[in-house]
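Throughout our pipeline, every protein is held as a single compact record rather than as scattered files. Nothing more is needed to write down the fold, since each code stands for a local backbone conformation. The record that follows is passed on verbatim for readers who wish to inspect the format.
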Amino acid sequence: MDPKHPTYPRNPSSASSTNLNFTQAYTDIHTATTHPHPYNSFANDEVRMYLLDQTRNLATGHTYMEVDDDLSSTAMFVNAKEGVSFEGNNVLVQVDGTEPDKGGVLFFAHFDSVSTAPGVTDNATAVASLFVLLEYPTMHRVKRTAIFNFHNGEGDGLNGAHACAVSSHPTCLTNSYKFLNFEGAGAGRHISHPPKWQCALRAISNMRSHTIFF
């Protein structure tokens, strides 16, 4: 095997055999990475509308699933070097569990990219993975409440994640005691694993949290 061009295992021939729809996952990645889509760009708006359409399609017919086109989680951040006023536009999905008293799990993945790359590894692979997870409760009810936050503005200073936390958005924080952040490590020449930045947010620092790298 050439170490520069490794051969990876083939995907299963049948999505039904694994309950994973690899064809749809590829479509999600391909659609979200047609162009670079940094926050506040037209391409970013297009990716966001795709996320909204997909999440609404998944939620259709399921009364226990609610999609929130979140345009209310706005916040201001000020430090010694700069001040930021962020108008949030995250996409949130709440899946009510059959036993909500058991608590819930909050899943995070940012959907914006840097301005110089289409964002395949950072962070469309993570977004597609969240879609796979989100598809599961449409076929099988889950006991714990699951909250999915597709957030924006990560590349400009983690703004979407901050806005959701500091604005005390009920969908973000209700019954959430475990936290999983899906983050692509990027594919640049000098890339190292990013820190578990969201775990440092004060509003969710008491959750049991973990970052999954791709």
In short: Confidence is low (pLDDT under 50) at residues 189-209.
